Amino acid sequence: MGYAVECGLKACAARRIREHDVPEESFINDFYTHRFEELLLISGYTSVFLQRKKQDPRFRENWEKLADWKETLRYNPAVTESAARRLVEAVSDPLYGVLPWLKTLW
Predict the structure, then answer these.
(1) Residue 86: exposed, middle, or buried by beta-carbon count in 10 A (0-12, 13-18, 19+)?
(2) How far apart are alpha carbons 41 and 47 in whole angstroms?
(3) Residues 4 and 71: beta-carbon distance below 8 Å
């Protein structure tokens, strides 16, 4: 589910690249991160995100469930089924989930 959010943020960032333009090298390098905060920055939607987080406590709770996500978690056998289910809900909830919100931006 973390990768879904990562791809959503990268889709938002990709909207900033215009056809026939060559993006700055730093933008391209930043694109290769897995860190949500950095991807939010390059997406250009940080202020929109902060506003949604401030106005919507359930969205904020869902985002906070993702705060500790790292790409290496997929290899961690200590991740419980209930933790995985919480992550799925935080990402996919149709009203307060992170991915449905991102879909409105790309």
Answers:
(1) middle
(2) 9
(3) no
